Amino acid sequence: MQLLLLRIPAPCGGQYNGSEGVVLSPNYPLNYTTRQTCSYYITVSTQFVVFGQFAVFQTAMNDSVELFDGADENARLLSSLAGSHSGETLPLATSNQIMLRFNAKSGQSARGFHFVYQAVPRTSESQCSSVPEPRYGRRIGSEFSAGSVVRFECSPGYLLKGSSAIWCQAVPGALAQWNSTTPSCIVPCSGNLTERRGTILSPAYPEPYPNSLNCLWRIHVSEGAGIQIQV
């Protein structure tokens, strides 16, 4: 018996429902098709809002991705990105719907994007929204009331991009809010390692590394000590 495996290209646009999911650029993980505009509509239950981040983001400089805090492009613009980003965390939406619009009209192509989203509970006057764990990291703290502090750390080999701690602030006459966005965990290209043990990962790991990189890591240990490397 022979099995024939077919690769189904990621679509240009679509409707996404459920408490979590993934949105991919057209043809991902291959380069996206040029000269098109794709609209993606993400909806979670009404008692939640949408939290999202780009695990991978690489577009031609004149192509962009826009995210709107609502069902269409008339809603507030959450973020607009172009170029190359790694582990990009976005501002938390205030709605249970977001729209993602991919403008690929430059005629040039690149790898595209891998967007991960999940539903998180809404905020109140004395309670901030729940904080997801960063991809390839962990959250320390599970109390989200006003005055609470939540800390973050990354898995070995990853570097924290953003604040290592955020706190929930009470705002008079308004909803409680975090003083900063959730950080992300990225793989650095180069570094100086001085701890007794550590991990080195290729950029964007476990995804394939980008092209045209030149990364250098220096490992320093105490004089007289040896270095053992495992691959």
UniProtKB/TrEMBL annotation:
It comes from Pogonophryne albipinna. Keywords: Disulfide bond, Repeat, Signal, Sushi. It comes from the Eukaryota. CDD domains: CCP (cd00033), CUB (cd00041). Pfam families: CUB (PF00431), Sushi (PF00084). This is Uncharacterized protein. PROSITE patterns: CUB, SUSHI. Residues 126-187 form the Sushi domain. Residues 12-120, 189-231 form the CUB domain. SMART domains: CCP (SM00032), CUB (SM00042).
